[in-house]
Model the fold of this input.
Amino acid sequence: NNLDQLYRQVIMDHYKNPRNKGQLDVEDKLTIDMNNPTCGDRIQLHLQVEDNKIVDAKFTGEGCSISLSSASMMTEAVKGLSVDKALHMSELFSEMIQGNDYEEEDLDFGDIQALQGVSKFPARIKCATLAWKAMEKGIKGNQ
Ligand code: FES
Ligand code: FES
Done:
């Protein structure tokens, strides 16, 4: 239907024109290397965290359209968030991607909602959560 089509366009747009792809040009950054064991694809997430806030986020690496569009959307969404909010958003994303109910609360899911359909393809869920898991790992390791 139309919504599926719109969602597919949003995903392809992030895949073809990734936001925040590249290195983070700051000295004090966290780099998290994360792979999807089911396919071997891997991404590196670069985070600049200051005063418990994600000031900047970028990513590099290789993956499928779902994993890379999700990384693009995730880096956009968490920039400017406190680390607690970013972790909470990751929990909500996890619910969304499994097809469960979730409340956006005061968080802005924006383009991220376009990945909802992935819940119908369980094998792809790990693709969609790859970047979020990297973010969680980076923040938790830094706490
Ligand atoms: Fe890679 Fe569909 S996104 S197979
Ligand atoms: Fe490898 Fe999606 S198929 S991350």
